[in-house]
What we know:
Layout: E1 9-12, H1 16-29, E2 35-38, H2 41-49, E3 65-69, H3 77-86, E4 95-99, H4 104-112, E5 117-120, H5 125-143
Parallel strand pairs: 1-2, 1-3, 3-4, 4-5
Helix pairs in contact: 1-5
Amino acid sequence: MNGAHSTTLLLAEDLEDDVFIMRRALKTAGIHNPLAVVSDGRELLAYLSGVGPYQDRNAFPMPFLIFLDLKMPYHDGFECLEVIRRNPSLKHIPVVVLTSSSQDKDQNHAYRLGARTYLVKPPHSGDLLDVVISLESHFLASHGRSPFVLGEPQRRVI
C-alpha cells in the first residue's frame, strides 16, 4: 500500500506522555485515522524505508502524513526531515513538526527543510483540526480524495 491510498498517520515521538496527548488530541478533534508510532529517528527512517521489523507494508503501511518531533534520539527531527525531502519516494509526504521549541530559528529551519506546518507542543485538538482542514484541499487536488477519517469532534464537559 502506498502513501497515496493509506489512511495511516505516523507519529515520531520519544516521550510516552506526548504520544498519549497526541492520541487524545486526535480523538478530541474527531480524527479517526490509524496512528503508527515510532520512538526515535532511527525507527522513523527504518519505518519509512520498510526495513527490519517494518518490511510488512500491510502491518506498517506508508503514512500519508508524518507528525515529527524535533528532539529525538539517534537522529533528530531536522536530520529526519532532510532525509525525507531528499528521497524521491518520500518527499511528497507532508510533515507536521511537533516540538516544544517556540524559537523562530527552529521554526524557520524546519520550514526551509520542507516542513508543511510547525506546531508547538502540546498539540491542541483545534490546531490539529485546522491542519487537517488545510491539508484536505491538498489531498483532494492531488489525489481526488481525502485520506482523513473524520468524525464528530468530542465535546468537553466542564
